[in-house]
Amino acid sequence: MGLENFDAKYAIKISLLTLVAAATTFNAITSYQVKGLLTGNAVPKAEAPAAQEPAANQPTKKPSDYHFGIPYEKAVKAKKPMIVLFYADWCGFCVRFMPIYEELYKNHKDQFNFVKVNVEDKKYEDAVKKYEIAAFPTVFMVNTKTDKREQLMNENFGNMNKLDELLNDFHKKNK
After folding, report:
1. Over the stretch 83-123, which tens digit does the pLDDT of each residue have?
2. Which CATH architecture has domain 63-173?
3. Among the four 9, 12, 38, 65, which has the fewest Cβ within 10 Å?
4. Alpha carbon 12 to chain centroid distance?
C-alpha cells in the first residue's frame, strides 16, 4: 500500500475533529469538577460560562475592586498569621468567591491579616511560584513566623461554618 491512496484532506479533517472533541471533553470535565467544588453540589448544572449572563444574585465585582486587607509585602513581615487569596480578575470562580472572602475578613480580621494576590501582577511572580499556584481561587492560611501554610480546599468554599472552623483551628495552633 503506497501513498497514492492517502487522502491528506480527509486525514486533516479527522485530526481536527478529534482535537475539537478532546478539547470540548476536557473543558466539560474541568468545568464540572471546579464548579462542583466551589458550589458544594455533587452534580452541578451544565452551563457555558462565557455565554451566560450573570444571575441577578451573582456577584459581578472583580476581586481587585474589593478594598480590604493589607498588602502581601506587609503581611509576610507581620507577626499575625495571614490568609492569602490568589486570584485572577477574569476568573468567574474568583468573582463568586470574593463575597465569601470578604465575609471571612469581617469574621476573622482580628486573628489574621487578609491579603489578595493578583496572579497576573508581575510583582507577585515569586509568591505565585513559591505557593505553586496553578488554579484560582487558591487560599492559604500562613503562619508568617514559621512559614507553615495550609491550603483551604475549594470544596469548603461554599460552607461558611466550615471555613470559620478551619480558620479558628489554624489560629489556635499558630498563635
Report:
1. 999 999 999 999 999 999 999 999 999 999 999 999 999 99
2. 3-Layer(aba) Sandwich (3.40)
3. 9
4. 37
